[in-house]
């Protein structure tokens, strides 16, 4: 996301060489979703550049490639998994969690496959699983079975909260596109581990996005009081204002818990001049 074109020259200085964009983004937010890894395993040299641009406490939540999760559906993936783990090794402690996003067709009947896959993963990483099959939200038995599978390896369940998006019909092209692609599932706000991860999708109108995350402020504050270390990703359909909104969410949590550390001061979007 740190290369998102609408942010260049607005939130991030422009022009910036590719090897400096993440460094600039990291002054706005202290975590990032690794979505690009879903489409292809990055070169190790690319990951080394990510590590150089961030401090050791910066958080990457890195998505496993779709060849593992969607095409092979967690079966017979030893070679692909080995290549992926080798590629991301330079992140070191920055790899906050490896994110196993499963397709909507991955159902409760597939939980045995998920359990076997998770048990084979190296314990040197933390893992987080996102499911989209409706049964995992509507059927109490399926919920319990998935929670037991994840608890067995200390893996987190990543909720993708799209309830604000689907509250009323879309009003922009980006919202209409999101309506056709994003999962329509109930909000889930249960943490299984000490590192809960939340993905929240609002609307293109900032005020509607802010209104929709009110419940999460209380939930995140409670997790912090319990000694957990949550990571929250704020999205809108067009993501045009996402860095600003992420900082606003952080400020809203600090308004409830002032002891939470502030985010770093972002770099100026415009180059400094003498005039």
From TrEMBL:
Stored InterPro entries: DUF72 (IPR002763), UPF0759_sf (IPR036520)
One Pfam family from the record: DUF72
PANTHER family: UNCHARACTERIZED PROTEIN YECE (PTHR30348), UPF0759 PROTEIN YECE (PTHR30348:SF9)
Protein name, UniProt field: DUF72 domain-containing protein
Native source organism of the sequence: Planotetraspora silvatica
């Amino acid at each position: 996301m740190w290369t998102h074109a609408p942010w260049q020259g607005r939130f991030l200085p422009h022009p910036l060489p590719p090897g400096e964009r993440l460094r600039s983004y990291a002054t706005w937010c202290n975590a990032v979703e690794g979505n690009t890894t879903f489409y292809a395993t990055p070169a190790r040299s690319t990951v080394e550049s990510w590590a150089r641009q961030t401090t050791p406490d910066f958080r990457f939540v890195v998505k496993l490639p779709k060849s593992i999760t969607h095409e092979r559906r967690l079966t017979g993936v030893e070679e692909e998994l080995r290549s992926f783990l080798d590629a991301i090794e330079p992140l070191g402690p920055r790899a906050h969690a490896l994110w196993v996003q499963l397709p909507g067709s991955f159902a409760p009947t597939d939980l045995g496959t998920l359990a076997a896959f998770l048990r084979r993963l190296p314990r040197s990483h933390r893992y987080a699983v996102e499911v989209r099959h409706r049964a995992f939200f509507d059927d109490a038995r399926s919920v319990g079975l998935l929670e037991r599978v994840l608890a067995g390896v200390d893996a987190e369940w990543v909720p993708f909260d799209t309830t604000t998006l689907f509250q009323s019909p879309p009003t922009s092209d980006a919202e209409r596109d999101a309506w056709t692609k994003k999962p329509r599932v109930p909000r889930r706000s249960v943490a299984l581990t000490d590192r809960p991860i939340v993905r929240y999708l609002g609307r293109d109108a900032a005020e509607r996005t802010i209104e929709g995350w009110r419940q999460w402020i209380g939930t995140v504050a409670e997790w912090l009081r319990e000694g957990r270390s949550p990571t929250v990703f704020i999205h809108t359909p067009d993501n045009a204002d996402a860095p600003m909104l992420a900082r606003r969410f952080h400020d809203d949590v600090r308004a409830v818990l002032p002891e939470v550390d502030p985010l770093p001061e972002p770099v100026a979007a415009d180059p400094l001049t003498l005039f």
